[in-house]
Each structure stands twice: as C-alpha cells, then as structure tokens.
Amino acid sequence: MSTSINWTELVRDRKGIRTKDNKSCGNIIGNDEKNIIIEDGAMRQHIYKVPKSSIESYNGAELRLNISYYELETDEVKDDDKDMLESITESVKDKTKSLKEKL
To answer: Residue 37, class by beta-carbon neighbours within 10 Å (0-12 exposed, 13-18 middle, 19+ buried)?
Structure first.
C-alpha cells in the first residue's frame, strides 16, 4: 500500500484520516519509513504514531485506517515522546518549504 502513496503530497496537504468506524481522527502531519504521524484537535491536541500497515486505503481525499477510533488511542504519543515528533515535523516542514520554493 505505502509504495503507491505520495507521502510528501499527503503531508504537505495535511490530508484527513478516518478510522474503520468512519470517525475523523485528524490530519497527517508527518511520516517515516514505517509510520504516519496524525494530529487530531486544535484545543486538546492529540498526536498519534500509527503503523503504515494500519492503512486500508487512500481515495485521493483522505486516508482510511483499518483500525477503530478506540484502537487508535493506543497509538497516542505521550509527552515523553513529543521531542521525537517535533524533529520529524520540522524535517517535513523543511521539505515542504523546499518543494514550494521549487514550484
């Protein structure tokens, strides 16, 4: 699945994500080789690190996961791990900025 998805585009456009029980769970804000990073909520922000193997499909507008919203909560990043996420997010922002400059 992950080989046919343009991850740079998904992150740049902050594509939406839905769980298998059809609940919106935020937007993709980053990825690495094995995981996607999801940001959910503006006021009470939740960050999830979800294995790419949990992706069921992509329809051009949003990703659909093969896990429920309840199962997603087990992938929430705790405060201790947020430094790692900040480095991933900064790297993605740098790549996105570089791409926009080229366009």
So the answer is: buried
Whether 26 shows a pLDDT value over 50: the answer reads yes
Q: With 50 as the cut, is the pLDDT of residue 2 above it?
A: no
36: left (phi over 0), alpha (psi -120 to 50) or beta: beta
Candidate CATH numbers 2.30.30.240, 3.30.450.20, 2.60.220.30, 3.30.1300.10; the one for domain 2-102 = 2.30.30.240
**Segments making up each domain of the chain, as ranges:** 2-102
Beta-carbon count within 10 A of 22 CB: 9
DSSP string, 3-22: GGS-HHHHHHTT-EEE-TTS
pTM over 0.85: no
